[in-house]
Amino acid sequence: MSAALELALVVLIVGWAxxxxxxxxxxxxxxxxxAGIADRIDRPGRPAWLRRCGRVLRPLAASGGSCGDGxxxxxxxxxAPAGPQPLVFHPRRPPAPRPPGGGR
Length: 104
Known about the structure:
InterPro entries: DUF6587. This protein is mainly α. α1 packs across α2 and α2 packs antiparallel against α3. The radius of gyration is 26 Å and the shape is flat. The two termini are 44 Å apart.
């Protein structure tokens, strides 16, 4: 494999990993950056294919969280906890006996 192709592949993989990490660790920032890029691409006077790419890149409207998604932001999602739950430890079970001769 040529050095240029190898370098391009490494750059693509590292860039993809950085974007995935950003979306995972800072979703609001990633959404804001994505919307900014989409707005720059989808401007009047640009070619139709480029504007279409901008519309595809535009992030979906963020939902504020509903009672069905279990977010707990409004305090009314699901039943209220009953209070502190006791911590219960279960003893370990002994391992199953092995057949004579090693089992192999």
